[in-house]
Write a structure and sequence with these properties.
By secondary structure, the protein is α/β, with parallel strands linked by helices. 37% of the residues lie in helices and 18% in strands. It binds adenosine monophosphate and manganese (II) ion (2 copies). One manganese (II) ion binds next to helix 2.
Length: 329
């Protein structure tokens, strides 16, 4: 198991962290609960050890996670002088967006991530696809040195586990992730609170937007897809971060092997969210299209208009489905 605390890379990470004074922590663009939870959780752990820590994320913290302790201190760019950069939940360097600037090139970078598609772009790379969330790896990192887990740290890390597993329902949920969750609850995190705030609450406008997208969804040769246009999102005064729940919801459709949600952005790009039933993987398709992810949930961002991106992506997905017969599960 990759999260084995005996892993040499854990010792190497602790060595680097031990000698660093100023540490920059980064996470991915359009952050999810694991990105924000891991960033804040590791940030608090390192501050408790007396480190001078800066937390950076290219995009604002979604309102859904605004209640987590420390979100106000997250900046958009890692400016200043640092001894060490730690990149969290990013499968490739592009995912850091503006938070990573060229003048950080000379600073050692540690890459901590659980995406199977990780390109191992760090000086040290700890990539554990067996972990359900990067937050689970941060807990293992803390446990390796018996760092005390405060209620705030536990709350941030459990948020990462809850959101990436959709409250322990994804097929990668296992004893190790439940054990991690139990440890975090013992440290004071509230599972029902986190589940309600991060997964079970959304504005009515989001549901109305989903309603339009659901009405337009199409099913063909095992692929269920739909789209959210810029105009639709603007008419409900929403920003570009409400479609990942829609893809998860659509993945409950029995007839679908793969779900694709196309979300037109304001900058001429289209975000593509992919989901697959167990036995089929969308990670490779996403990687081929310049993105990444996990076997059951992946994504990519393509330039071009909606019609073009739909054609390219659906062609790739159908080709993949024809080549890789669905395994029995
Ligand atoms: P989402 O559909 O946004 O919930 O994303 C599902 C999974 O795919 C997450 O693990 C993301 O990290 C990954 N993912 C989504 N979009 C991209 C992208 N543009 N590039 C790389 N990975 C992505
Ligand atoms: Mn993430
Ligand atoms: Mn994650």
């Amino acid at each position: 198991v990759g999260s084995d605390p005996g892993l040499p890379v854990l010792g190497a990470i602790h060595e680097q962290v031990g000698v660093a004074g100023r540490i920059l922590l980064l996470t991915h663009v359009v952050p999810d609960g694991d990105a924000i939870g891991s960033l804040l959780g590791l940030g608090a752990l390192l501050r408790d050890r007396g480190k001078d820590v800066t937390l950076a994320c290219s995009d604002p913290v979604p309102g859904l996670y605004g209640w987590l302790p420390g979100t106000a201190g997250i900046v958009a760019r890692g400016n200043g002088r640092f001894d060490l950069v730690i990149c969290l939940d990013c499968s490739d360097p592009k995912r850091m967006g503006q938070a990573y600037s060229e003048d950080l090139k000379s600073v050692p970078l540690i890459n901590i991530d659980h995406h199977i598609t990780n390109t191992r772009f760090g000086l040290l790379n700890w990539v554990d696809p067996a972990a359900v969330a990067t937050a689970q790896m941060i807990l293992a990192l803390a446990e390796h040195k018996a760092w005390p887990i405060t209620v705030d740290v536990a709350t941030c890390l459990l948020t990462g586990l809850v959101t990436d597993t959709r409250s322990f329902r994804t097929p990668n949920t296992d004893q190790a992730s439940m054990q991690a969750a139990l440890g975090l609850m013992e440290a004071g995190a509230s599972l029902p609170d986190i589940t309600r705030r991060a997964l079970d609450q959304r504005p009515l406008a989001v549901i109305r937007l989903w309603g339009q997208a659901i009405e337009r969804c199409q099913l063909e040769r095992g692929v269920l897809w739909t789209e959210v246009t810029r105009d639709q999102r603007q008419s409900w005064a929403l920003d570009g971060n409400s479609e990942s729940g829609l893809a998860n919801f659509l993945s409950s459709v029995r007839e679908a092997t793969v779900v694709v949600v196309f979300a037109e952005q304001d900058n001429g790009l289209v975000d593509v969210g992919l989901r697959a039933v167990p036995g089929t993987s969308v990670a490779e398709v996403a990687l081929r299209l310049g993105g990444g992810g996990h076997p059951q949930a992946a994504g990519c961002t393509l330039a071009g208009d909606l019609a073009y991106v739909k054609r390219v992506v659906l062609h790739e997905v159908w080709t993949m489905l024809e080549q890789e017969p669905v395994e029995d599960t």
